[in-house]
Amino acid sequence: MSNSSLREKNIVFIGFMGAGKTTVGKLVAKKLYRDFIDIDEEIEKEYNMPIPKIFAEIGEKAFREKEKELIQNLCDYKLKIISVGGGAFLQEEIRRVCLSSSIVFYLDITWDAWKGRLSSIIDSRPVLQGKSMEEIEALFYKRKEIYKNNYHSTIEISNQNMDELAESIVQTLKLSWELHETK
Ligand SMILES: Nc1ncnc2c1ncn2[C@@H]1O[C@H](COP(=O)(O)OP(=O)(O)O)[C@@H](O)[C@H]1O
Ligand SMILES: O=C(O)C1=C[C@@H](OP(=O)(O)O)[C@@H](O)[C@H](O)C1
Ligand SMILES: [Mg+2]
Q1: How far apart are CA 156 and CA 169, in angstroms?
Q2: CA-based angle 35:37:38, to the nearest 5?
Q3: Residue 63 to residues 38, 52, 59: CA-CA distances in angstroms?
Q4: So what's the pLDDT on residue 182?
Q5: Residue 83: which H helix or E strand, with range?
Q6: Which of 1, 84, 104, 180 has its CA 20 to 30 A from that of 55?
Q7: Residue-level pLDDT at 2
């Protein structure tokens, strides 16, 4: 692969709900002077309603179809920073298109660190609602199996400040771009 093609690839952030994909993706985009796209935000704009309302009124199936369509379309572009929802990589077609067109960055968080975030995110994450802590924990580990088998680069984010985290991601990316430089 030529250096320019690696540098031009999109960067896609994956990981569990609340791991920080949206927050960190935005910061990384700013540091790299690139466009940032949050897939959930795009879906909310399309339906003109927040995600819990989309799930309740239109249904998860339609949400997943829209998620796939938007990601597939965006992967035709270059140089984008994209945060996908935590459920996106459950779809094989999404995994395939992201892994082939983009650098997939997995934001990994421990269960212990994640637990503390639940109360601040549950109202906007319908997938977490109506579940016991044991059920959420089981979902957390089930999803982890998918993320950890489908990425190019990863970072442990459990106890890091968001800006430092974004800065380490940028440094990792720059290093890998330089390492792949063809003279
Ligand atoms: N590194 C971090 N440290 C502490 N809180 C964080 C961190 N990253 C994200 N958060 C907080 O966790 C919540 C979920 O973050 P968000 O970026 O929306 O995650 P995701 O897009 O992965 O669901 C937000 O309230 C955000 O402020
Ligand atoms: O994991 C999931 O199934 C979902 C994650 C959410 O995005 P975040 O991962 O950004 O919270 C959002 O797409 C939707 O609520 C479903
Ligand atoms: Mg998000």
Answers
A1: 11
A2: 155
A3: 14, 11, 6
A4: 60
A5: strand 81-83
A6: 104
A7: 47
CA angle 100, 140, 19 (to 5 degrees): 65
Ligand 2 mean position to 9 CA, how many Å?
24
What pLDDT, on the 0 to 100 scale, is given for residue 3?
45
| pLDDT for residue 159 | 80
CB contact at 8 A, 154 and 12: no
Domains recognised in the chain with CATH numbers: 3-170 (3.40.50.300)
CA 87 to ligand 3 centroid distance, Å: 10
Is ligand 2 within 6 A of the CB of residue 85?
yes
Q: Which two tokens stand for residue 78?
A: 């270059």
Provide block-wise average pLDDT over 10 residues at a time, the chain (183 residues).
75 98 98 98 98 98 98 96 98 98 97 96 98 98 98 92 96 93 62
